[in-house]
Hints:
This protein is an all-beta fold. Helices cover 2% and strands 52% of the residues. The chain has one helix at residues 269-274; strands at 5-8, 17-23, 28-33, 38-43, 49-53, 58-63, 69-73, 76-81, 86-92, 101-107, 113-118, 121-123, 126-127, 132-137, 143-150, 153-158, 164-169, 174-180, 187-195, 202-208, 214-219, 223-228, 233-239, 245-251, 257-262, 282-285. It has a four-stranded antiparallel β-sheet, with no helix packed on it. Strands 2-3-4-5 form a four-stranded antiparallel β-sheet, with no helix packed on it. Strands 6-7-8-9 form a four-stranded antiparallel β-sheet, with no helix packed on it. The radius of gyration is 17 Å and the shape is globular.
Amino acid sequence: MSSIKTECITNEGNRIGESPVWDEKESSLLYVDITGRKVCRWSSVSKQVQAISVDATVSSVALRKSGDYVITLGTKFATLKWKEQVVSTITQVDKDKPNTRFNDGKVDPAGRYFAGTMGEEIQPAVVERKQGALYTLFSDHSVVKHFDQVDISNGLDWSLDHKTFFYVDSLSYSVDAFDYDLQTGKIGNRRSMYKLEKEESIPDGMCIDTEGKLWVACYDGGRVIRLDPETGKRLQTVKLPVDKTTSCCFGGKDYSEMYVTSASDGMDKEHLARQPQAGRIFKITGLGVKGVPPYPFAG
Length: 299
């Protein structure tokens, strides 16, 4: 087993860092600060962060086939032109619900953008229940709603054979699996794949490695866990120096580095003094596995 090393790579803390995505073309890590209303890009070359401020909560970012990025902003799917710093709305969801917002999102192997919503947060991870839903934005900019009654729509990814969709609704404390149809983007036959243990706390963002195992960031658990979807067993735990670990992705030249986002919202002075790196971005090396490059949105 290689020795696992964790390092903090940013100086600034985010309020809610989320949605890390490796941009190979830019040798950079993209991520968002949801309540800080910023889309950020950390360069692995210059080690500097560039940020673009937006006018609403921004909860996920993804690559776009034609260049630049797509984001979930408030209850909108939107495009982001990085150089020009221009955001353009594609479409809006939850028009009948004034208090919801998008949360995590990710592009599927066919280039569709899956993203879910959640109710208003009274305080971090305390929400108006069952207000959210899971949506897909297709390349023609049409939207499908898969299901509603979601508390906090969160981590998502697809199996290596593209037959299973993995999904987290945080307050169910479960990582769920669905049958997934690559041709149509339809999902069905929902079942629980892994129930989190008490000290693991709340399941948040996740990603898959090239061995088909899932990595799940545990909010308030200060760790990422590696799960085997075949057996439903936890294989590994990697602890971080901050409690509010929010999401993870693989990146770097050969996708052998893991990047983990974190949050500081909801922490009092004393807690922040104990965890001064809260809200920063971490890089984990020496895991001995590689990740799957992100898929770009086809629209």
